[in-house]
Write a structure and sequence with these properties.
- The protein is α/β, with parallel strands linked by helices.
- It folds into two domains: 145 residues, Diaminopimelate Epimerase, Chain A, domain 1 (Roll); 55 residues, no CATH class.
- 56% of the residues lie in helices and 10% in strands.
- The chain has ten helices and four strands, in the order ααβααααββααααβ.
- The chain has a four-stranded mixed β-sheet with strand order 3-2-1-4, sandwiched between helices.
- β2 and β3 form a beta hairpin.
- α2 runs parallel beside α10, α3 runs antiparallel to α4 and α8 packs antiparallel against α9.
- The protein is elongated, with a radius of gyration of 22 Å.
- The termini are close together.
């Protein structure tokens, strides 16, 4: 569940991870957790249409005399209800959306969040956004220009893969994997005397405590 993913222990683990990284490196880390990166309304539509045809088939072929008005209205009511219920079933949205499409939405939302959160406003352009998208079960990393020059794209993609794989084990697992990036980031941009904490360390999340099961 979403609440379990981001419980008090996970909150504390993310805060510790950010502090640990920033204590050994000049990198400014911002963690943003979003419930989803897109609406994926096509999943609602697919389920709704399938249920409409299934309900219509049942009403037409079962040995029970449904009225014409019932046949005309009730399948669409049931289909609309089923389509609406998909909002409570993130797994259905994932299954009905190709992985490449989900990834594009996550990366686009991550870049937008990078700007919205002002991660590009550090003096040395050393910001790193850790964008976690819960419905998609994916993590995207967006590094500012100076950090991106020093931390290769291959290393960044590998880190994304490690963090994404940890999502199935919960928020604490993701935070612990994030903390393990500290050594690599310290080697890339070591902390200097007088480095200031320019960005908030608190986790930025819109994930409600009562999110539906994944």
């Amino acid at each position: 569940m979403g609440a379990r993913f981001l419980d008090d222990e996970a909150h504390a683990a993310f805060k510790t991870a950010v502090e640990d990284i920033e204590s050994v490196s000049a990198v400014e880390v911002v963690v943003a957790l979003r419930r989803r990166s897109a609406g994926y309304l096509h999943a609602n539509l697919i389920v709704g249409v399938v249920v409409v045809f299934a309900a219509l088939a049942v009403m037409l072929f079962v040995d029970y005399p449904f009225s014409l008005l019932a046949i005309l209205i009730e399948p669409f009511l049931v289909g609309a209800l089923a389509g609406g219920l998909v909002e409570l079933l993130p797994l259905v949205k994932r299954v009905l959306t190709p992985p490449g499409v989900r990834r594009r939405h996550v990366e686009h939302a991550a870049r937008a969040t990078f700007v919205d959160r002002g991660v590009h406003n550090t003096t040395d352009r050393s910001g790193l956004l850790v964008y976690i998208s819960w419905v998609e079960q994916q993590v995207a990393l967006v590094a500012d220009s100076t950090l991106a020059k020093e931390w290769t794209g291959e290393a960044l993609r590998e880190a994304e893969g490690t963090l994404t794989s940890a999502m199935s084990r919960g928020g604490v697992a993701v935070a612990r994997e994030l903390a393990r990036l500290g050594d690599a980031l310290a080697a890339t941009m070591p902390r200097r005397a007088g480095d200031l904490n320019e960005l908030p360390d608190a986790l930025d999340s819109d994930l409600a405590r009562r999110s539906p099961s994944a």
